[in-house]
């Protein structure tokens, strides 16, 4: 029996009406008839009407290992039975343990870790550290970036469609480099692209006059449509920054924990630059529990004179999830799985898209693949096509995300849990292929 049979007033349609009556209009919601997900297992979720879906979005990359992973569920429930929360005013063993592990894998020497409850708050803290350390409120960010929804995170978010108004206290300079195949440098080869972007950054810093605190960048832009500049670009940027004492903040909210396959962190695709000064993380580490955080070397982290805490940051029940999840990830080499299965999936998506008139590009790293849709001929972003493919995929039991594509959501985002199997990759790609073919016919 489904929720709807049991309680018609609780049907998804009714719930949607109640949602609209009480929640903000700008709260993003997928599908013409939004679904209510009630439970999950592995790479699958079920809705309140009993439909089963292969989850290729993992709750926006939050389900890093698997839905209802027994190791995580057990750790959470055991901790919950002991105590849910006190505060980090007292010693918190799970928090210390997770901080030790994250410091060890961060690549940042003499690392200190501060836990928050979201990616936004992590970036807020990173910006607070950088502006305090450098005594400047000027920040460089990439165009097409997304860093969260607080005043300061919005203030470094390059795309106005995700941050329509901002009275940010920060002064932000936007440079190129997040999008390889659009924009003024798209036709250049990688080396020339890096050179042009670096000149752009140098020029921008010259115009800034005075000190700049930091550059904040996602190694692969997430909400921006799983897009990045060539490997090594951020290393070239780093050289320019280092000469001027400017800090580098790597926003790894989507790219951390082996998601990109080849590397544990996104910044490692620019490893010549060494580790960033500040790294932020969130999303996947808690496998759905709200953990965010900042890693920085002690000298940067400790520049705040304040005696401060985050009330819920480091809460033992979330930390228990983080520890169990990270253990599982490392013990089962899920980064390796992301590389292997992600490679196959990308190949399969490229084959699925071949011949489709609405696909402009298929790109990806590890288990982070973007299928950019565009109007044939003009190459203009085509958000309606992305919405249609999303609906068609859902009808056949596949959930994917969308985002980016310049100012509109024209990129299908594929980011399944990192335990994805080859058979599931094949199944999802087949459904997407069918959805693309149907959309081609309906729109063509
Ligand atoms: N940074 C990046 C790269 C993100 O993708 C997001 C969210 O999508 C954030 C920061 C904000 O994280 P949160 O939604 O947890 O506040």
Automatic annotation (TrEMBL):
Enzyme class per UniProt: transferase
EC number(s) recorded for this UniProt protein: 2.6.1.44
Coiled-coil residue windows: none
Record organism: Streptomyces ovatisporus
Keyword Transferase: yes
Subunit text: Homotetramer.
Signal peptide (from-to): none
Key words, A-Z: Aminotransferase, Pyridoxal phosphate, Transferase
InterPro entries attached to this UniProt entry: Aminotrans_3, PyrdxlP-dep_Trfase, PyrdxlP-dep_Trfase_major, PyrdxlP-dep_Trfase_small
Molecular functions (GO terms): transaminase activity
Cofactor: pyridoxal 5'-phosphate
Family classification: Belongs to the class-III pyridoxal-phosphate-dependent aminotransferase family.
Pfam families: Aminotran_3 (PF00202)
UniProt-listed PANTHER family: ALANINE--GLYOXYLATE AMINOTRANSFERASE 2, MITOCHONDRIAL, PTHR45688
Name the UniProt record assigns to this protein: alanine--glyoxylate transaminase
